[in-house]
Q: What sequence folds into this?
């Protein structure tokens, strides 16, 4: 039976994953973006059920115990996970699914979905990554430093992924991503 393709976009916080994913969804209206669950509090501009399912630590633990998450990870003091049901349903319906997740989760996905295609987004430099995180103005100084610290460990693992794309100029990175995804979707 044919099934949709699972595509994972990963990379350090602030590299531009969310920005690229928004543009990808405009380009591929049939692609389904998985909405993650998180224990992080919502940012000013975020909507429940659209950006994330914002849940308590207790509910998140329950989701883990009931095997309701395809993968999950702790990131900079909060938990993030991919709800299993929606992803499995879409794939069964032959709809391709996009996950935008951090590195530990992306590693776990390979075990459950060996055919998942995982793309690592890199910043042009560490200085630029720091600049992007700061100018987004969504995190406290402590949270920014935590994310930058983690970014160093994450970037060191880039070779574990199927493709690496540098997000320097946004339009160039988007065009590269579209080229990759076009070739993945053709293989379905
Ligand atoms: P992530 O989802 O990886 O944490 P975001 O998509 O929120 O990252 O991007 C972080 C910040 O960097 C945002 O302010 C975004 O507008 C900006 N940004 C993203 N891509 C680029 C780019 N290619 N050049 C300059 N700024 C960018
Ligand atoms: P943010 O707090 O900036 O929204 O997200 C922090 C990090 O968690 C980002 O790298 C983001 O990609 C990642 N993330 C979002 N949802 C998930 C998820 O379901 N699972 C995992 N493992 N990481 C996620």
A:
């Amino acid at each position: 039976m044919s099934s949709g393709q699972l595509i994972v976009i990963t990379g350090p916080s602030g590299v531009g994953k969310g920005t690229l994913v928004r543009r990808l969804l405009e380009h591929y209206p049939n692609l389904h973006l998985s909405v993650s669950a998180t224990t992080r509090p919502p940012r000013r501009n975020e909507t429940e059920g659209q950006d994330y399912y914002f849940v308590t630590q207790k509910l998140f633990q329950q989701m883990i115990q009931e095997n309701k998450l395809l993968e999950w990870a702790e990131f900079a003091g909060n938990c993030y996970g991919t709800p299993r049901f929606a992803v499995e349903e879409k794939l069964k319906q032959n709809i391709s699914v996009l996950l935008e997740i951090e590195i530990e989760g992306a590693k776990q996905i390979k075990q459950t979905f060996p055919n998942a295609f995982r793309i690592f987004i890199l910043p042009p430099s560490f200085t630029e990554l720091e600049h992007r995180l700061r100018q987004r103005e969504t995190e406290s100084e402590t949270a920014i430093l935590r994310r930058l610290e983690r970014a160093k460990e994450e970037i060191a693992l880039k070779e574990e992924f199927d493709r690496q794309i540098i997000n320097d100029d946004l339009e160039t990175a988007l065009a590269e991503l579209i080229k990759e995804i076009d070739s993945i979707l053709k293989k379905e």
Notes: Helices lie at 17-27, 57-65, 84-92, 103-112, 126-136, 141-155, 170-186. The mean pLDDT is 96. Strands lie at 6-10, 32-33, 37-38, 53-54, 69-75, 78-83, 97-100, 117-122, 163-166.
